[in-house]
Structure formats: C-alpha cells, structure tokens
Amino acid sequence: MTMEQVGKWDRSVRRIAELTVRVVDNTEDVPLIQAEWESLRKRCRGSIFSSFDWGMEWLRHFDQIAQPRIVMVEEDGELVGLAPFAVMEHRAMGIRMRKLSMVGNGAGVAELYDLGIMVLDEREDIIDAIVDAMGELEWNVLHLNELRDDDVNRALLRRVAERWETDEVMHIPCPRTDIPQNGDVMDVASSRTRRTIRKAIEALERDNRISYRTVDLPEETSEATELYALQHMERWSEKGGSIFSNENLSGFLRDVMRATAEEGRGMVYEVWIDGTLASQMLCLDDGDLMRAYRVGMNNRFAEFSPGNLVAIYAMREAQEAGFVQFDFGAGPEEFKYRLGAKDVPLIRIQAKRGTVKAMAKISSLPGLKQLVDRSGARDQALKAFHR
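Below the sequence we write its predicted structure tokens.
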C-alpha cells in the first residue's frame, strides 16, 4: 500500500500505542486493501463470507443503502486487525437511524453469516483499538448479527458492553452435519427421512425419471444461479413476492457465485425430474466445510421432496471430495435437523447510543422502545424468503 493510496481516504490516521488505525469509508478504495485483507483472513481462519471477494461484491451491489466503514489496525506496516463494518441509514417514526453492521449483513437481504472481526493472535490491544475506532464512527444503532461464536467476537462483545447500552446477547442456530468418512451419508438422517428419500429415489430411478448435475464452470454457474432466482420468484409469486425481484439482490447472487466458481470454490448441485429442473443447492467450498448457501425447488415435484434429494446429492459429493462437515446455514429450519444437523451457535451483538438510546427510554411514546430494540426484526422477517 502506497502513501498515495492511503492519502485517498478521508479519515484521519491515529496512533494508539504501537498500533495505527485507519478507516476505509469509500467503496472505490476497498480494492486497495484486497491482498492485506485476504492474508489476514486466512491467518485468522475467517469464513468465506468474511472474504474480500464476498464483501466487495456485497458493497458493490448494495452501495445505495450501505457504505463501508472498514476499520484497519496496523503494526509496523502490517495489517493485524480488520473489522469490515458498513453503515446504513433510514428513518423510523421520524428518528434518524444510522446502523453499524458487518459488511454482508444488516441490509435485510442477502445476509451473510459466520462473520466477525479478524484479529491476529486474538490480541486484546487490537480489539481495544477496533472498539475505540467504533466509538468515533457515526452510528446510533449497533447490529452485529450472525457472528462466529469465538474468543475474539466474545471479547468484542465484552468491550462493547462496557461502553454502550447493550442488549442481551442472542444466539442464532447454524445447523451442521458431520459427514461420515465411510458408508452412505444418508445414514446420518432420521429413520423417517431415510425411508422417504429412498422411496422417492427408487420410484424415480425405476422409471428413469431422475438425473443429477453438478455445475461448476463460471458461465454455467451464473446461468444456474439465474434459474434459482427465477424459480424463487415463481415459488413466492402468490406469497407476497420474492426478494429476488430486486435486481441488486439477484445480480449480487449471480455475480458472487460466478466469481466463487472462477476460484474453484463455488458449485451448484441440481436434481432433474422428467427433464425439468426440480431442485438446486448453491454450495461453497470453505476449507474442510461445505456450505449450502441457498436451496431452491420446483413446487411441481413437491411429492418427491426435491429439497431433500438435492441435499443428499450434495452431501454425497461433499463426502467424495473429503469435506468433514456440511453447513446448512443460519436458521433452525426443521429439514436441516432431519438430515443429521446439530447446532453451531452464532451470536448477535446489539447496542444503541445517542438519540436512539434516549428515545428508547421514553415510555410515553408507545411502541418506540420496541421499535429500537427490534431494529433487526424486519431483517429477520425478510430472511424467511431466502431459501
């Protein structure tokens, strides 16, 4: 990073002991830190959703509602801490809400998960520097959702609670299935689910009605993702509409899956019945973990539970490739547990300050405190549409 590049940023450079703190607050400047971001993420074993590529695509597609506030902590010119924040502004009941969230989460759509700050060697002084920088950013609602439940994010929670009025920590289930290294992956499913899936597969295979397809070439992955969005819109047309009617969201999904496929880490598993696409699972290679980022199905084939069929297909492919776990994503949908998943908790940190904190205490304004305390409720409601 050159001094000329550093000079492009509006935020001042501050010295905290031996640490230098900078804030990147312009999407155009984010690519300048790509190499450093990815190097630190890999050293800290951050998830694929914390990667530069996923964060940059999210910022690029949602730049009308979210602006970066990426806190960088350097020591002797080396990046040792990174907090990829974004700020979003809206008004509710006349109150100006400026919400500080993680890049990729907080806009109410396209939410990523297993996020968090990245801190080299889990150093306390770096976490302190990040929290000090948070104090200088302009926000009145803090909503850090679906963070990895680890020592670093727990330390962040403690520091935030010491400085601002913080809600009780919330846990979000993120079900994962341990993939058996031998035998049939279907053995991890409940007995009833096994019987249902085997019965459907036997009936379809007997009449040569079912086929499977793995899509992993970038252009084909992009096309498959577009089909996913179209099926989602069709499935939800009579239930309030699909979030993928929004071009920013459908474009984000298409572009980020294509970019991930170009890296050899993204693929789409498909089940076809009677020559028609019945179900898809958009999956990601994240180390020894395969993530099922999105799953979609065609309601015409509901009698065969096509979502279960594509899940078993994807899990078998993951087993063959040597993955250790299969991650079904955040949320306690019942089908995940029927496929052998057990919860890996994520945490949510929420706080408020300034006008929002004061207004939340005014009991004479009915519903206002609930509005503030549940500032992420709309986000969570919209997520019900994601799968």
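Residues 1-12, 377-387 have pLDDT under 50 and may be disordered.
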